[in-house]
Amino acid sequence: MKRILLPPALLLGLGALLALSQTTLPEGPGKELVLAKCQTCHDIGFVARERLSRERWDVVLSEMVMRGLQVTPEERGRILDYLATYLGTEPPPATPPAQETPAPKTGAQVYANCQGCHGPQGEGNPPTFPPLKGHVEKLLRAEGGRAYLLAVVLYGVQGPMKVLGQEYNNVMPGFSWLSDEELALVLNHLAAWGAPEGFRPYKPEEVQAARAKPLTPEEVLKLRQGLKLP
Asked: What Gene3D superfamilies does this protein's entry cite (predicted)?
């Protein structure tokens, strides 16, 4: 197998990007967008000791776009501004004053964490990332599909699968760092694309109960294999 060697600067940038953390990420314009786009595909740890120049962050973002990150030019600019300002080589600006308590989130807002791979309307990005629209309906109609969909969002899934006739073999990270309320919101947002008659909306208590039975992404895949999807 041919090995691909990446430039040291790019490796450093990727390492720093993977080291971001939702709990330690500095406050500033663009923070939520960075979390939504980067957390989708990366496990994010503590802030890296190495800080990168704007030019190096630009290289990192270009590499991520080549690997499937879906961002508009405007979003890319906002992400680059945030990374260069708050995770750059110069000290970041002073933390802005605390803002008023934001309004409650909607399912569409929480779904921003998913659309980097699955698209704004659930259209996906075949053959890398599967669509959700048209597929979630089949899951919710299948026996055991409701619990499987919750497990996928909570714990992620890894391995080969077929979605709407297309083969996929990728890794989806879980979103256990979201609150029970946020996970229920995004699950109901997905269900709105094709829930069967009599569908019961997900509730935070149902998510909380699922947390008590943690699964690995491979175990989640086994749940899927038992659904007998058409």
From this structure: Cytochrome c-like domain
211 and 122 within one domain = yes
Instruction: Quote helix, strand, coil % in the chain, to nearest 5.
Output: 45, 10, 45
Model pTM above 0.70: no
User: Average pLDDT of 3-19?
Assistant: 49
Domain span at residue 175 reads 105-225
Q: For residues 149 and 190, is the Cβ–Cβ distance under 8 A? A: yes
Would you state the pLDDT for residue 83? Answer: 87
Distance linking the first and last C-alpha atoms of the chain: 36
Report residue 97 as tokens. 């004053």
Helix (H, G, I), strand (E, B) or coil at 159: strand
Instruction: Give the model confidence (pLDDT) of 116-155 as tens digits.
Output: 889 999 999 898 899 999 999 999 999 999 999 999 999 9
Burial of 31 by CB count in 10 Å (0-12 exposed, 13-18 middle, 19+ buried)?
Answer: middle
Q: Are residues 112 and 215 in the same domain?
A: yes
Residues in the chain: 230
Q: Is residue 99 part of a domain?
A: no
Q: Which has the closest alpha carbon to 17: 40, 54, 47?
A: 47
Which pLDDT belongs to residue 11?
Answer: 46
